[in-house]
Amino acid sequence: MSQFDLTPEQKDIRNAAREFARGEFPDRAREADVTQRCPRELYPMAADLGFQGLFFPEAYGGAGLGYLEFCLVSEEFWRVDPGLGQSLTSITFGADLLLLYGTEEQKQRTLPPLCTGKAIMGAAITEADAGSDITEVRTTAVLDGDEWVLNGTKMFITNGTLADFLIVYCLTDPDAPARHQRHSCILVETDRPGYAATKLLGKLGIRASDTAEVVLDQVRVPAGNLIGTRGQGFQQFMEFFNRTRLHVAAQGVGVAQGALDKASRHVKNREQFGRPLAALQGVQFKIAEMATRVEAARGLVYRAAAQVDAGTIDHGLIAMAKWFAGETGVRVTDEALQLHGGYGYLAEYDVERFYRDAKIVELYEGTKEVEKQIVARCILGKV
Ligand SMILES: Cc1cc2nc3c(=O)[nH]c(=O)nc-3n(C[C@H](O)[C@H](O)[C@H](O)COP(=O)(O)OP(=O)(O)OC[C@H]3O[C@@H](n4cnc5c(N)ncnc54)[C@H](O)[C@@H]3O)c2cc1C
Q1: How does pLDDT run across 42-91, given as a tens digit for each residue?
Q2: SS3 of 159, please?
């Protein structure tokens, strides 16, 4: 199938990610889903092989590559196991914002340890009453001398109990006339007094990945931890999402491809009515439709990522990729489970885990409805 004209180096990265995931994930994936944690030894292993900070400049310990390369790694990891894949690729979540708007000091302090697997980052935007509408965020940050004092509660924070650094989206200018100029982004070291995180258990899928409620109670950080311009947090996060939605979209491609792999194997091996399921035309049509959806989603994601790497931000295309890849993950895992019949319903066949894992791509970093609104606005303009 299409290689989207990947360069030899990109193919090498994709193959290395595939080899690592196939070698290390299968024996750990089911237990990680049950225990709801990612085995710690995987973090340094992935870092040693250079999978962390792929898109960071070399000056900060990264590989100096782009989002397309990061998408290739996300796709391959999710193809083998979404929960472990999400755990390992989310270590640098939030760093994209520092790369765009951080000071040199902030970047030097935080990015190199992320690349070596010695530190973990996260980004805390969502609150109980502020999900899709992030202008409703009420966590406050007030300047007191040369320190910011933060108070509030964040919900659903990836890496909340594991992170060393969090980028926190908070209200700094509540009286600004425009709703989009009231928030700022502040770097918070999680070992500061007043930081508390509680792991959220019982997620539907990607259960190996840490998700937490985070409470900030009089947390003090230096004034210099402000990222970029005060009051510009909303605009900063919109730019951030234009990058991070790419690799979330790649997750949708990966989980779909992984489910298609399993379904293709199963229908060739399973016999009913005296022949393999794969010989039945109805089954062939299903496989053909699944494969076509995956390939279409992959094409959108690679094109959107390549454009960002080339310096063009087409947020309509990025939103299309994120929505379509998310839906592809959900549809293809559903069909894959169906093709396994009753066996698909058992943990032993792993496809039920993919079915549960896929749904998150339609929810986080912009629900599918939010993505469609962005696409529609690009086509219709403001109506
Ligand atoms: C496992 C997991 C990890 C996460 N990680 C993070 C993280 O690291 N950091 C972080 O900040 N957040 C994180 N989130 C939060 C996630 O981004 C939000 O859940 C998501 O943005 C949706 O917000 P909400 O849950 O409040 O849903 P709501 O905003 O309440 O939406 C509910 C439903 O209403 C629809 N809806 C809302 N507004 C509109 C509209 N205008 N038009 C049409 N439909 C609309 C939505 O599409 C959705 O279907 C995570 C969530 C999960 C589940």
Answers
A1: 999 999 999 999 999 999 999 999 999 999 999 999 999 999 999 999 99
A2: coil
- Whether residue 288 sits in one domain with residue 338: yes
Residue 250's contacts (CB-CB under 8 Å, 6 or more residues apart) are: 70, 71, 72, 74, 75, 78, 301, 305, 325
Residue 330, both tokens: 């959900």
Same domain, 81 and 179: no
For residues 104 and 146, state if they share a domain.
no
Say yes or no: CB of residue 211 within 6 Å of ligand 1: yes
| Ligand 1 site-directed mutation target among 367, 370, 371, 372, most atoms within 8 Å of CB | 367
Instruction: Please say which residue of 213, 231, 249 terminates a domain.
Output: 231
Phi-psi region of 64 (alpha: psi -120 to 50; beta: other; left: phi over 0): left
User: Is the domain of 222 the same as that of 267?
Assistant: no
Ligand 1 touching residue 240 (CB < 6 A): no
Q: Outline where DSSP puts E strands in 27-120.
A: none
Q: Which one of 182, 212, 231 terminates a domain?
A: 231
Query: What's the pLDDT at 3?
Result: 54
What positions carry a catalytic annotation? Answer: 365
CA 369–ligand 1 middle distance (angstroms): 10
Residue 1 has pLDDT above 90, yes or no: no
Domain range for 351 is: 235-380
Q: Is the CB of 364 under 6 A from ligand 1?
A: yes
Residue 1 lies in a domain: no
Q: Which residue, by CA, sits nearest to atom 26 of ligand 1? A: 131
| Predicted confidence (pLDDT) per residue in 135-166, tens digit | 999 999 999 999 999 999 999 999 999 999 99
**Closest ligand 1 atom to 365 CA:** 17
